[in-house]
Write a structure and sequence with these properties.
By secondary structure, the chain is an alpha+beta fold. It contains three helices and four strands. A four-stranded antiparallel β-sheet has the order 1-2-4-3.
Length: about 90
């Protein structure tokens, strides 16, 4: 469910608003030391406004991760230069 939320947001807020379309990348890797897994969805679209970053979908995602993993799970939103956004989940192993 978490990954689906990030992909939907990348399409809705990143790719859909642009006329030229864009690219979505999904990936994952284990952190050094094996204490966490980092999962990301990045897009080459319009980026995310402050209102979308504070939206219901991401708030619900943060709440679900906190309920399942506790305080150690994180959702990070990063600029994906030169265009777009990268959303990362950090999940404890």
């Amino acid at each position: 469910m978490a990954l689906l939320t990030l992909v939907e947001n990348a399409i809705r807020h990143g790719i859909d608003p642009t006329e030229q379309g864009g690219v979505i990348e999904v990936g994952a890797r284990r952190e050094a030391g094996g204490t966490a897994v980092r999962v990301w969805v990045s897009d080459s679209g319009a980026g995310m406004s402050e209102t979308a970053a504070a939206g219901t979908g991401l708030a619900n995602l943060r709440a679900r991760l906190k309920a399942f993993y506790g305080e150690t799970a994180q959702v990070e939103l990063l600029e994906n230069a030169p265009h777009g956004l990268r959303a990362e989940l950090v999940l404890p192993t």
